[in-house]
């Protein structure tokens, strides 16, 4: 009976019940420690499960994917399209954010006393993040390139943050498999192929507990945000409501207007079908705030529900989870201008163009984990001469906005993946749905 409810509906139920539970806890005498000690661990177990599977999944599916391509020219063509489309969507996203924040000017209406309060309240927090960003800035501008090549591949596979290094190594193995004698390559490919199926089966197991994991994540998030003083948390959020609405407006524009238009222009996939297929990934992105943790599910959904080939998805999606963050770059554009407005600084057109450039680069450099976008925002601020301590102004609603921008990040990756698959001649009729027992269709 429970099995009959589609997975995404089960996740939504978990999400809503988690929110309600969290609200009940902060409004009643139930101590917060109960949620943090006995409910939150189940959310952590769920996220750990997803993260546990990410590196083996990328390794196995990319090796099989590349070795199935047949020749290397196809790989470079897919690579070129992927990176080009990722860049275009990111620049589009920052531009939309900048237009909205310049039109609505949310920073101009922030009362000076609220500004002072926020600055003093979050000074320490902002300081520690400025420190983290300073560490990043000490590096050579070419450091991101250096970071792609692991000095020890086994160490790279033990660190989820080193996903690009794993991608790099897996592509090399795949290419080498294409070039050695077939007889020698076949058993290696067969091994990774079997491994790949094993891992996908494990993703299925993890998804069975998704509704409970999401419940735990939401309940503990509410309790943590509200902390000991729920009323002041609500007041702060209200003061920053206009800013938050501008960020949300931009994010919804991406999901409801930009991606559907791009999909319509380049594929035969109907946006409704696309949306339905990736809904579980979007819900997980929302509840985990991490594109990396969501990656196994994004891959599973585009392959099983949209019919994208493993060759394409195993290359496009892991790359996207680390470098393509449309939601994050849009948010960075809005936040940078908001802070400048609130501090009474006028930004010139050149400075705003600088934001497009640095927010694009910063979103490429942001890791797909909660809060990464906020740290990289500091680099954007410094490039236009706005004091980095200004992030104190926007820390309060950041955790919530992170959830929404991660949904956009993941949707952007899935959109580009679908486009690349379509332009490679896959999905000729718009939708080829493979059977998937765990996500019954409505
Ligand atoms: N949480 C985001 C992600 O994982 C990154 C960020 O904007 O903080 O996609």
TrEMBL record:
Source organism, top-level taxon: Bacteria
Alphabetical list of SUPFAM superfamilies matching this protein? Proton glutamate symport protein
This chain's protein is named Na+/H+-dicarboxylate symporter
Key words, A-Z: Cell membrane, Glycoprotein, Membrane, Symport, Transmembrane, Transmembrane helix, Transport
* InterPro entries, sorted: DAACS (IPR050746), Na-dicarboxylate_symporter (IPR001991), Na-dicarboxylate_symporter_CS (IPR018107), Na:dicarbo_symporter_sf (IPR036458)
Q: Which GO terms describe its molecular function?
A: symporter activity
Please list every transmembrane segment annotated in the UniProt record, as residue ranges. Answer: 12-30, 50-71, 83-104, 162-181, 202-223, 243-266, 353-369, 375-396
| Gene3D superfamilies per the UniProt record, alphabetical | Sodium:dicarboxylate symporter
Cite the Pfam families for this sequence: SDF
Source species: Algoriphagus locisalis
Where does it primarily localize? membrane
The record describes its membrane topology as: Multi-pass membrane protein
Any one biological process term the GO annotation gives = L-alpha-amino acid transmembrane transport
PROSITE patterns xref list: NA_DICARBOXYL_SYMP_2 (PS00714)
Task: One GO cellular component term, please give it.
Answer: plasma membrane
- Location in the cell: Cell membrane
